[in-house]
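Newbie here. two chains, one complex. Structure please?
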Amino acid sequence: MNYTFNWSVLWTGESGQWLLSGLIVTLELSGLAWLLAVALGIVSGALRTVKFRPFRAVATFYVEFFRNVPLLVWMFFWYFGAPPFLPGPIREWMFDHGLEFWAGVTALGVYSGARFSEVLRAGIQSIPRTQMEAAVASGLTTFQTYRYVILPVALRLIIPPGTNESLNLLKNSSVALTISVTELTFQTRQIETYTAKAIEALTAGTLIYLVLCVGVASIMSWVERRTAIPGLIAHGARRR
Amino acid sequence: MIEIVSGLDVIWRNLPFLMIQGFLGFGKFVGGTVRLAIPAIVLGFILGVFIGLARLAPSRWIRLPATLYVEFFRGVPLVMVIFWMWFVVPIVLRRPIPEFWVALTAFVIFEAAYLGEIVRAGVQSVARGQVEAATAVGLTAVQTMRHVVLPQALKNMIPALVTQFIVLFKDTSLASIIGFMDLTKAAQVVNNREVRPFALYLFIAVVYWVCTYSMSRYARHVEQRLSPA
């Protein structure tokens, strides 16, 4: 191996600035996609457990179709395929505000939402049926039952698998480089292109991802401890 | 409406290229989703068994590297691993490596970390008495693992394994980033010529979906057959 290391490429020139901006874009992309994914996951996960059949069918279609197709295909679909079919004003706004970023948020959010949905459904199904029956018996509507009884418990039960999915989302955001979102992996490649120092650039990018993942995991384990339901968490963990 | 009809026409005319070259991998280009996915699954599983068993080894000097391996690759995006292989392997070997081998190496190394965790969980799910009984009848540690623990562990692992195989199957689409002519790349090539992104990407989405969904249905079927009544 005849490769001369030159680690200074990481702090000379614009490399540091690129890495920083890549990190910020990765966090923005993941953060917005996470909000979308959690919202879609809660709605579709809850709908998969209701009695009304058409709701269940729609939610099942969403989950099974979106989660079983590669994220990369969804990136191309939302970036190249979908925009011509959007209503005019939304399309204009997207073209003005970085189409690739919003296509990336949509692709990542809708894809991860289908995966969150499965996690939430498992959480809801691990809650004893009697909770639901008691809520209905005390006069709550189905919506109120979910809003005030089922979801608050389910969301606390699913923090460990939810953390896993959140980390997957963060790592999957790297796929957005294929539609030229200037996130962390994109900037890592950019440093490689300008300096021809692949190992140094990739090391920097890899370390940042590792730190991000460890950081998110430790924040979530703190949240898990804070929101633990006494006597219930062990039950939830055993059921996965 | 015209959009849909012309989209279907584009798919119909390019169907042999998409399916035979892109999906199966026969033709002028080196490619094929299936041709990459099958060896990646087989080799990834073999490496995963070793990683999983190493995580349970009595010696700390085997356990620690295996744990670091798993934690490292589970904290890094696959795209990053592919780029590592793409840039670094040619530097080490001092010659360019074909995309197929770059992609295959990256997938095997990356997925083995996830598969190793599944193997570990599977082995841990086997009752302790089984190991004690096997030792009592005079089997060595390797024989116990090979003839008693692994066959039972494998049965417990099937649902999680198939889920991971589905993930791997979907992940092969990322090989198109380094120019491997898989189904996704084939759709990109056709789209560059015909400009029908909506129809083309939706079509390959359906092709991927048919494969992954039938895998998950089959897994459910096997799971039901194997579970004690």
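Moderator note: Residues 15-47 of chain A form the longest helix (33 residues). Residues 33 and 106 of chain A are 7 Å apart (CA to CA). Thread marked as resolved.
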